[in-house]
Write a structure and sequence with these properties.
The complex is a heterodimer of chains A (about 475) and B (about 100).
Chain A: H1 9-17, H2 23-34, E1 42-44, H3 47-63, E2 73-77, H4 104-111, E3 115-120, H5 154-161, E4 167-172, H6 178-184, E5 187-190, E6 210-215, H7 218-228, E7 259-263, H8 273-288, E8 292-296, H9 304-319, H10 338-349, H11 352-365, H12 371-391, E9 397-401, H13 417-422, H14 428-433, E10 437-444, E11 450-457, H15 462-475
Parallel strand pairs in A: 2-3, 7-8, 7-9
Antiparallel strand pairs in A: 1-3, 4-6, 5-6, 5-10, 9-11, 10-11
Chain B: H1 5-14, H2 21-42, H3 77-81, E1 87-88, E2 91-92
Antiparallel strand pairs in B: 1-2
The chains are: A alpha/beta (about 475), B mainly alpha (about 100).
Chain lengths: ~475, ~100
């Protein structure tokens, strides 16, 4: 079967369970497509490891012990540590690093039967919105290779969009699943903070980081999310002790009478006309499906930018203090003493954006500034979360754009980090509130580039988001379109 | 408010980052550019608001768990040290700290 790479996770799982294809055949097909590393999407590939996992899956399929996703390939963002592949987090600091264990999310997907294709490029330590901050070069957007794929899970989004993997994992701290999904025309969901274990996910901003799946459709995301989530109470102190859920169960629920909140602040001057047109089109589809659009307010949307860019760097400066050239990772060659070794190691190992965030974070946590910045940001964070709770009194789901524009061209924001920060405006509020959010293909804008619709749900309402996304995907075909010239 | 070159040097030292002169200069401009958008935060009245550390605390009480202080992982020193820059006889090597 030559079109295996165009099949959904669900279709592949069915073909594997009915033994119409073998896991080795599927893995071989994807490995062949990954040859030459198109779009610079992958950072580590090891076909021996992948094929060994595929053979193990075939054995399980043969003896009746197969998991629900047995033999279906997946690739992991390089911030998930893996025993069998290198893990660099897109940083020179961790060049060649091999973890002694698998992240819980990686292990859970293995238990469900998924075969690992390799590790995916991303912004260094997940800090970025364009994948231009990877120490291993940027990822190209498969829709237009002169444009960014979004970030930080840019490799994940590009790999799925280019048919190099049927699904991928991503992480979302301030929009890092939703924004690249939007830029590359795929579907991605960030669950409620605490749903998926952070054990083995290299920490950027611990109170915000959350793992989630990226795939072509909501239906596929539901399959992966069901396998990824679940309490990990002994290993992640922020993991919530709630039972696993079958997120596929309510995909087909009717949207009749569902209230969709439209935040005024998401449709202001900063929103590009082409993005607005696509988003409005998707909202009209929802009305046809029986949903009711309700105007709502999220008055502190703009404040979410400074609040996020205080809290996340503060937590990053603390988390990244572990990279000191002693226990793992890069160490400078020449130094005079221990402190000099730390300073030179970190100067050589970290890229510019990471250094900037460490510096900002160290500053806002330093004596005399903590109350004015970090604490003030945490207080406004609660106000932002409360704004959402007020909004959810009037609606069931919130909808709006994922990003103010379609994917921009490489280098456009290169000398102005604040320009990238401002482009995160629509994804940051849900991140700060810890709410589930997703990106669903909603059409195309300037240059034929994909536009994503953002759906935000209340805490633990992932199933409702996936239901809304799936119904839209039953009524539209944007998620099925592929970049022109894709082999 | 604006950071000074002295602030940058002080923070770089706290963060254990060696910055080249041109890097410090660029850092100063960019961080000050960023603090331009932080100003808006200072005007918000947050009297009586409790800082939020775990987001789900917006709807329910969240206490960060502590587990019993017992060893739960097997000893895998070799694996743990496989990516260390300098190891000898199972020990991490660092430059001499005490004369």
């Amino acid at each position: 079967m030559s079109d295996l790479h165009n099949l959904s996770v669900k279709a592949l799982a069915t073909l594997l369970q009915t033994k119409e294809v073998s896991a080795v055949e599927v893995a071989t097909r994807f490995l062949a497509r990954m040859g030459g590393n198109p779009h610079n999407a992958f950072l580590d590939i090891d076909s021996e490891v992948t094929l060994a996992q595929a053979r193990a899956s075939d054995a399980k399929l043969a003896d009746g012990t197969a998991g629900p996703l047995e033999g279906v390939p997946v690739a992991h963002k390089d911030v998930f540590v893996t025993r069998d592949f290198d893990t660099t987090a897109g940083s020179k600091m961790l060049s060649g690093y091999r973890s002694p264990f698998d992240a819980t999310v990686v292990q859970r997907l293995r238990t469900a039967g998924m075969v690992t294709l390799g590790k995916l490029n991303c912004d260094e330590f997940a800090m970025g919105s364009a994948n231009e901050n990877s120490a291993y070069g940027p990822v190209q957007n498969p829709w237009d290779t002169a444009r960014v794929p979004g970030g930080s899970s840019g490799g994940s989004a590009a790999a799925v969009a280019a048919g190099l993997a049927p699904a991928a994992t991503g992480t979302d701290t301030g929009g890092s699943i939703r924004q690249p999904a939007s830029f590359c025309g795929i579907t991605g969901i960030k669950p409620t903070y605490g749903r998926a274990s952070r054990y083995g996910m290299i920490a950027y901003a611990s109170s915000l980081d959350q793992a989630g799946p990226m795939a072509r459709s909501a239906e596929d995301c539901a399959l992966l999310l069901s396998a990824m989530c679940g309490g990990d109470i002994d290993r992640d102190s922020t993991s919530l002790d709630i039972p696993t859920e079958d997120f596929s169960a309510s995909l087909n629920n009717s949207l009749e009478g569902v209230r969709i909140g439209i935040p005024k602040e998401f449709f202001g001057e900063g929103l590009a006309a082409d993005v607005r047109a696509a988003v409005d089109g998707a909202l009209r589809e929802y009305e046809k499906l029986g949903a009711k659009l309700v105007p709502i307010r999220l008055p502190r949307t703009e404040l979410s930018i400074p609040v996020y860019y205080i809290i996340a760097p503060a937590e990053a400066s603390s988390n990244l203090s572990r990279f000191d050239g002693v226990k793992f990772g890069h160490r400078a060659k020449d130094y005079t003493d221990l402190v000099d070794m730390y300073k030179k190691t970190r100067a050589e190992g970290f890229g510019n954006e990471v250094k900037r965030r460490i510096m900002t974070g160290a500053y806002v946590l330093s004596h005399g500034y903590y109350d004015a910045y970090y604490l003030q940001a945490q207080k406004i964070r609660r106000m932002i979360a409360d704004d959402f709770q007020n909004a959810f009194k009037q609606c069931d789901v919130i909808a709006g754009p994922v990003a103010p524009s379609v994917a921009w061209k490489f280098g456009e924001n290169a000398n102005d980090p604040v320009a990238d920060y401002l482009a995160d405006i629509f994804t940051l509020p849900a991140s700060l509130a810890g709410l589930p959010g997703m990106s669903v293909p909603a059409g195309f804008g300037a240059g034929g580039m994909p536009v994503g619709l953002q759906l935000i749900g209340n805490y633990f309402k992932e199933a409702q988001l996936l239901n809304a996304a799936h119904r839209l995907q039953q009524a539209t075909d944007f998620h099925l379109r592929q970049p022109e010239g894709l082999q | 408010m604006s950071l000074t070159p002295q602030d940058i040097a002080r923070i770089a030292n706290l963060a254990r980052l060696e910055l080249k002169p041109d890097e410090s200069e660029r850092m100063l401009t960019q961080i000050n550019g960023f603090f331009g958008i932080v100003e808006a935060m200072q005007a918000v009245d947050t009297t009586g608001i409790t800082p939020m550390a775990h987001p789900v605390a917006a709807i329910q009480d969240i206490t960060l768990r502590l587990r019993p202080d017992v060893a739960s992982e097997p000893n895998q020193r070799d694996l743990n040290q496989q990516s260390a820059p300098a190891v000898e006889r199972g020990l991490f090597l660092v430059p001499k700290v005490i004369e």
